[in-house]
Design brief:
The protein is of the alpha/beta class and 306 residues long. It folds into two domains: 178 residues, Quinone Oxidoreductase, Chain A, domain 1 (Alpha-Beta Complex); 119 residues, 3-Layer(aba) Sandwich (Rossmann fold). It is built from nine helices and 17 strands. Strands 3, 5, 6, 8, 9, 16 and 17 form a seven-stranded mixed sheet that branches. It is globular, with a radius of gyration of 19 Å. This is NADPH:quinone reductase.
Length: 306
Amino acid sequence: MRAVTYDSFASDNSRLKTGDVPDPKVGPGQVLIEVRAAGVNPVDWKVMAGGLDGMMDAVFPVIPGWDVAGVVRGLGPDTPEFAPGDEVMAYARKDVIKAGTFAQYVAVAADHVARKPAALDWNQAGGLPLAGMTAQRSLDRLAVGEDDVLLIHAASGGVGGLAVQIARDRGTRVIGTASEKNHDYLRGLGAEPVSYGDGLVERVRELAPGGVTAVADFVGGQLDATLAVLAPGGRHVSIADNTVAEHGGHWIWVRPNGAKLAELAVLADRGALGVEVAGTFPLEETGAAFDASRSGHTRGKLVITP
């Protein structure tokens, strides 16, 4: 099969190449997915740079990618949950960095897989799993509901835009940080936009004089602002700053879970959750997709289309 690989850690795209590799083996309880779309996430190029080497083993050559949407083409032994031809999606992170989703095929544990929502096209479904489940896990940990005012740092990004929609579906009032050009986008999702940067605390306090009851940080470097706007007894999480745990917060690290992903599919099919796709790239242009992700100015999701 065709796949993108890298044969050593690198902080740039110099080790990326596209070529033929062996088809994946399909073990007990696994499904073989023909990849139609695979979302790009910052963790993909951070892993390539060795950023997770302290906690996860890598076996080279590595196929990057943890998101997938596609069609079931094969089943391992004792895998009754799915059948060939099923349209599915998954957050396909494995315990070892080796066989990712930027390829024509990938084998994934069946309990990490959910059926693709009919309301999303392939590119949208391919961009949903990691970002959507990260947003979902963050909001579950915060336990936000109708009585909450939630501040989302980086609300127009891939995770942030999904978090706005999930929170609004739960009846939560949402204030979201973004650049001016993305304010109308956030209003369309149901959030109250504020510009990030100098004066952020004052701008948030104008909208929520008593402070916000919850904060979700999806960019990092926001701890001082978070603590300054948080109401007494408020809760906060971050996906990018593990020091929040020293200040009463939680560092979020999403886990593969097909049942939780299926909850997002239900939201999508009833029109409560959409996925903004910022751009698509063939396998051969994975480096360009990584560069776009590294820029930090992408609204929505970038997607690889094998």
